[in-house]
Design brief:
The chain has 450 residues and is of the alpha/beta class. It is 45% helix and 13% strand. The radius of gyration is 25 Å and the shape is globular.
């Protein structure tokens, strides 16, 4: 790919078969100080991208020889560092979601709002802002395949504006992942606003999220901004989003679609520029099936899914995380962190940690108080670790305890059967199992399948 060299002005590529619209986009970008090239079909756009460097690409979805998604994929496949926004027909939500999943930075709906276009361009051209001091080493530790996969996806998500849905068990680090996405993104200079959706009384939700005008209700003695206004230009993290009542889900959906909010008691709306990251430990798809969560909101939030692995899937990373947490707890109390005995390390690795990192922190805080200050022993940890009488393969066929061992054995059998069916072609085996190749590779590594 072409290498970027020093230049006085940034350059954008506009791709649209409608000459009038292409000219309008070009004029707007020129007035913002950008140099502009135009292309009127997919083939011409790909040729431009191969020939020179661009800082931004705006492409229409429909063109005579293909779709804008082909340009997005071309950029991704070539490894080009070009944030791309796709222009979609008004109301074409599926096209917008497809574009974001393919790697687009953002999308614009026709008719194109010039104000929205300017906001998007300013946001895209700040993508080279370095990450904050809260980097991966501090927020998410480990060298296991599970955490490496999560960190790789976080790096990609930081360069996008797509809504992110983070799944994972309680205590697995969903908020830390959200903060890391924000910290590595062009929005890092603005606020990261975290909201626990299950902790807000239903009758206060609208005023908390959208703010209110003075006199809107009893006790509203002054104008007040809500979470959306506070996060303007930054990131709004909706933790435990499954706990939102249906009435609030309707209002949230409209704000996401329109990118405007109306304060309680106000007559007009105000535009907001907020990236939404949501998370829950519950299965949101099952909530949709049960009728407790709106399907249209689910599709808006779940554009790209990030799964945070539980601690038990992270192997020796447990010890890396444990040492870092223990050091932090000791420093907070002005102490020197004690060492783990070999038996304590073994106990940590054998314990399933149903509460994940949050439980680990509680266990270590207790152990620090109980230890002699020099060495932490299994007695200090007070973990109830199941006994294992023999090697992993010596369990009885019907033995379902401990649960994780049983699930690992079932998963290993299914993977081996798929590999044997495909003569150990991992790509075909992954297709049979209904997982991605990357997930297949990770599972094989975790289960020790060579």
């Amino acid at each position: 790919m072409a290498r970027k060299s020093a230049k006085t002005a940034r350059r954008a590529l506009v791709v649209d078969d409608e000459v009038d619209l292409a000219d309008l986009l070009e004029l707007t970008l020129l007035r913002m100080g950008l140099e502009v090239d135009k292309a009127h079909c997919v083939e011409e756009a790909c040729a431009c991208l191969d020939a020179r460097d661009y800082d931004l690409c705006l492409t229409d979805m429909r063109m005579p020889d293909g779709e804008g998604l082909e340009i997005v994929r071309h950029i991704q496949n070539k490894g080009l560092d070009v944030p791309t926004a796709v222009i979609t027909a008004y109301g074409s939500t599926q096209n917008a979601v497809s574009a974001l999943k393919a790697g687009a930075f953002d999308y614009l709906a026709k008719p194109v709002s010039l104000e929205q276009l300017r906001t998007l361009v300013k946001s895209a051209l700040r993508l080279d802002v370095p990450a904050t001091q809260e980097d991966a080493e501090r927020l998410l530790l480990g060298q296991s395949a599970a955490i490496k996969l999560a960190l790789e996806l976080i790096d990609k998500l930081a360069r996008s504006q797509a809504p992110v849905y983070i799944t994972g068990e309680s205590g697995s680090g969903k908020e830390r992942a959200a903060r890391l996405i924000h910290g590595k993104s062009n929005r890092s200079g603005k606020l990261f606003v975290a909201v626990n959706c299950g902790a807000i009384p239903e009758n206060l939700m609208e005023s908390e999220f959208f703010g209110y005008r003075k006199g809107a209700f009893t006790g509203a003695n002054e104008d007040r901004d809500g979470f959306f206004q506070a996060a303007h230009g930054g990131t709004l993290f909706l933790d435990e989003v499954a706990d939102l009542p249906l009435a609030m889900q309707v209002k949230l959906l409209r704000v996401i679609q329109e990118r405007k909010v109306r304060k309680v008691g106000a007559t007009g709306e105000e535009e907001i520029d907020v990236r939404i990251i949501s998370a829950t430990h519950r299965n949101l798809a099952k909530c949709v099936e049960a009728g407790t969560f709106r399907q249209d909101l689910f599709y808006r939030l779940n554009v790209i899914e990030l799964r945070m692995p539980p601690l038990r899937e992270m192997g020796e990373d447990i010890l890396i995380i444990a040492r870092q947490v223990l050091s932090r707890l000791a420093n907070r109390q002005g102490l020197v962190a004690p060492q783990f005995s070999a038996e304590a390390e073994l106990a940590l690795q054998r314990y399933a940690f149903p509460g994940n990192v949050r439980e680990l922190e509680n266990v270590l805080e207790r152990a620090l108080a109980l230890s002699d200050g020099v060495c932490i022993t299994p007695d200090d940890l007070q973990l109830v670790v199941p006994e294992r009488d023999g090697p992993e393969g010596e369990h009885e066929p019907g033995d379902k305890y401990p649960l994780q061992d049983y699930l690992d054995r079932v998963e290993k059998v299914a993977i081996m059967e798929a590999l044997e069916k495909t003569r150990f072609n991992r790509t075909q085996a992954a297709r049979i199992l209904g997982v991605t190749f990357r997930s297949m590779r990770y599972r094989m590594e975790r289960l020790g399948i060579q």
